[in-house]
Specification:
The chain is mostly beta strands. The chain has helices at residues 10-19, 25-28, 33-46, 247-250; strands at residues 60-62, 72-74, 86-88, 93-96, 99-109, 112-121, 128-135, 142-150, 159-166, 172-179, 182-190, 200-206, 211-215, 218-223, 235-242, 260-271.
């Protein structure tokens, strides 16, 4: 999740879980989010997920030659909570130079001085290979993220798998996961050449008994503890946002004085056991056994 896994208040975590939505109407249901979370967690305890229970939308590849509205929902008109200094704006989700562009700029919207961008899939995905080819800008106090998430808004426990470039230092990317709302497995890993200098490939392979993160085809982190593995299908997100309040994690926010962008050239989901979908795909070379 877009928060410091080692230094995040309960209020901030609650805000962020509450705001992962398909529209601002979910914010009006914020008072009930905690009740949903408790109920969903209790249900998960009574009926633990099994591999055969993991449903998933089909495999896909999106090269962003257009913005497929049947696949993507564009966040617009709200924020993820008080920690975020910007409002999601659909105007900052654009196609340019053969890539999806998510922007961040100084533009007053509602009670915030900045506007930012996010998209999310409408469907949920399960075990498989998740891949994104992307490039970030640079600037203190911002977060450029590729991640999956499900939570109380969907009457599910909060599960999440993250790649987050804290653009104060684009030489690294943070990998992380959340299990029932609790951060697990956080680690900063190197991005050779820098996340801002060119397009890099970020991927994770999610299986029933392990979770592996890759940067440019290199394994950078692995988790096999069953208590630290997500068990619920999730939506895929891309976002670029800023914060004045999470300086210990994201760096002190500084007005960049210009529009910043995060570009995504490709995203793909390949279900386990399915053929790889493009020649450079990690699914072509990585099997369940290695």
């Amino acid at each position: 999740m877009n928060a410091d896994p080692n230094n995040t208040s309960t209020a901030v975590v609650s805000d962020m879980a509450r705001a992962r939505s398909n529209g601002p109407s979910n914010l009006r249901r914020g008072l009930f989010s905690a009740l949903f979370a408790v109920a969903a967690t209790f249900a998960a305890f009574l009926h633990p997920a099994r591999a055969q229970d993991m449903t998933s939308a089909p495999s896909f590849v999106d090269n962003f030659t257009n913005l497929d509205r049947s696949r993507w929902y564009v966040s617009d008109g709200w924020s993820n909570g008080a920690h975020q200094n910007c409002i999601w704006s659909k105007d900052l989700v654009q196609l340019s130079d053969g890539a999806l562009s998510l922007g961040f700029e100084k533009r007053k919207l509602k009670d915030r001085e900045f506007a930012c961008a996010e998209i999310q899939t409408k469907q949920r995905y399960g075990y498989g290979v998740y891949e994104a080819r992307m490039k970030t800008d640079i600037g203190s106090g911002l977060n450029a993220a590729f991640f999956t998430y499900i939570g109380p808004q969907d009457k599910q426990p909060w599960d999440e798998i993250d790649f987050e470039v804290l653009t104060k230092d684009p030489s690294k990317v943070q990998v992380n996961s959340y299990i029932q709302g609790k951060p697990k497995n956080g680690k900063l890993v190197d991005v050779e050449g820098g996340a801002d200098k060119g397009f890099n490939d970020y991927a994770f392979i999610w299986e029933k008994d392990r979770l592996r993160w890759y940067v440019n085809g290199k394994l950078v982190h692995e988790v096999t503890n069953p208590d630290e593995l997500p068990t619920h299908p999730q939506k895929i997100f891309f976002s670029l946002w800023g914060s004045d309040k999470l300086a210990n994690w994201m760096g002190p926010f500084a007005d960049p004085g210009r529009k910043l962008t995060m570009q995504v050239k490709r995203v793909a989901f390949t279900a386990l056991g399915q053929p790889c979908q493009f020649p450079e795909s990690l699914a072509c070379t990585i099997t369940n056994s290695n």
